[in-house]
Design brief:
The protein is of the alpha/beta class. The protein folds into 2 domains: about 140 residues, no CATH class; about 80 residues, Vaccinia Virus protein VP39 (Rossmann fold, 3-Layer(aba) Sandwich). Helix content is about 30%, strand content about 15%. It is built from 8 helices and 8 strands; from the N terminus they run H-E-H-H-E-E-H-E-E-E-H-E-H-E-H-H. The chain has a 4-stranded mixed β-sheet, with helices on both faces. A two-stranded antiparallel ribbon has the order 5-6. It has a two-stranded parallel ribbon with strand order 7-8. Helix 1 packs across helix 3. The longest helix has 18 residues. It binds S-adenosylmethionine.
Length: about 240
């Protein structure tokens, strides 16, 4: 909801720095991120990139950032800009980028574009605070850098419709089994419908789900205590 992409990245780096503050020294940070285009329509709304370089004030990291200058129709490159920001020390300290991964959406939404390849993937990044982070080799060896998984839609039990963008339960479940010790704590600062918290509780970890929306957090609480959902989160 930030007015410019540079401010969006700035806000994410600020949140990431807070995540770093509470992250165990041997812990991992995973970020799931979709890119977007600079479309003429989004400029009219004041969203997306602006060709003028944005309207943010001089204290912002993003002022004059190239992300606010990409031409209309171009991808903004947000996932990689976010990741490179972490490598450049913009999120609370020195991060190690252990891997980039691709979620290949095997049933992705139709993409109306006819002059470029249809986008059917999102990025996942794995960061650590140091080179000796916790990993569970028996689980990690099962994972490849490309994840073929369908999208999942979710009806909110609160009666307020669907959450627009839950990720498949298999993503946080596998990451948690791979990089969080049993009994450990998993925090999702953009928890939405609570898929991460559900995967954590079902797999014997403590899950904490934060969201701007009270409705989504209520859903997260309900989902993660439901025995059927927990059973699904255990399927490997
Ligand atoms: C893509 S969704 C996450 C979906 C989640 N992975 C799931 O499976 O349900 C991003 C969520 O971040 C929340 N959000 C956006 N900005 C936020 C902020 N500044 N603080 C907390 N939550 C925020 C939105 O309400 C939205 O539910």
């Amino acid at each position: 909801m930030e007015p410019t992409p540079a401010e969006f990245l700035d806000a994410l780096w600020t949140v990431t720095a807070e995540c770093r503050r509470v992250l165990n020294p041997g812990g991992s940070l995973f970020f799931n991120f979709n890119d977007k285009y600079n479309s003429a329509a989004s400029n009219q709304n004041g969203l997306g990139a602006t060709l003028q370089g944005g309207s943010h004030d001089s204290n912002r990291i993003g002022r004059g950032s190239t992300v606010d200058l990409v031409p209309v129709k171009s991808l903004l490159g947000l996932p990689w800009r976010y990741a490179i920001g972490l490598l450049d020390g913009k999120a609370g300290g020195e991060w190690i980028l252990r891997s980039d991964m691709i979620w290949n959406k095997t049933n992705g939404m139709p993409d109306p574009a006819r002059d470029r390849a249809a986008r059917k993937h999102e990025y996942l990044f794995h960061f650590t605070k140091n080179g000796k982070h916790f990993a569970n080799p028996a689980e990690v060896v099962k994972l490849k850098s490309v994840w073929d998984l369908p999208t999942e839609s979710l009806l909110l039990p609160t009666g307020s419709g669907k959450h627009p963008a839950p990720f498949p339960l298999a993503i946080p479940a596998a990451l948690i089994r791979g990089w969080c010790p049993e009994g450990g704590v998993v925090l999702d600062p953009f928890g939405g419908s609570g898929t991460t918290a559900l995967a954590a509780w079902a797999n014997g970890r403590t899950g904490i789900s934060l969201d701007l929306s009270q409705d989504y957090s209520t859903t997260a609480l309900r989902r993660s205590s439901d025995p059927k959902n927990r059973e699904r989160a255990l399927n490997r």
